[in-house]
Design goal:
This protein is an alpha+beta fold and about 130 residues long. The chain has an eight-stranded mixed sheet with strand order 2-3-4-1-5-8-7-6. Strand 2 and strand 3 form a beta hairpin. The radius of gyration is 14 Å and the shape is globular. GO terms for molecular function: metal ion binding; methylmalonyl-CoA epimerase activity. Belongs to the methylmalonyl-CoA epimerase family. Keywords: Isomerase, Metal-binding.
């Protein structure tokens, strides 16, 4: 596995993408509307910043209401999401997603519960 991206909740993905472009020279690698979100991936070395702007009520809008803008999750890429989930189960770590589901950019994803991962929402992503 390797680091894939940091998911960042924001009220304005376009403005944040422009700021990160100006400050850090990051460029947009991919944009889409998915699952009630505007999602913008910015290239950042060997990974991405994934900007998540809610377009409707849901998980990210609730996160923003409770916490404000900021890092929502960290994602690790795997070539075998099923095998990674089996390893997680073997270690008795709680899963939010028992099975992989469709994610942004056409990837398969599954989330681990932060109560068992040091308070961090971890996403497994298979490209």
């Amino acid at each position: 596995m390797h680091f894939d991206h940091a998911g960042i909740a924001t009220d304005d993905a376009q403005a944040l993408a422009e700021l990160y472009g100006d400050l850090f020279g990051l460029e947009v690698a991919h944009e889409e509307e998915f699952d009630g979100l505007r999602v913008v991936f910015l290239e950042c070395g060997d990974g991405y910043f994934e900007l998540l702007e809610p377009l409707e009520e849901g998980t990210i809008s609730r996160y923003l209401e409770d916490n404000g803008s900021g890092i929502h999750h960290l994602a690790l890429a795997t070539d075998d999401i099923e095998g990674a989930l089996e390893t997680v189960r073997d270690h008795e770590v709680a899963l939010i997603d028992e099975e992989p589901r469709p994610g942004a950019w056409g990837h398969s994803v599954a989330f681990l519960h932060p109560k068992d991962t040091g308070g961090i929402l971890i996403e497994l992503v298979e490209h």
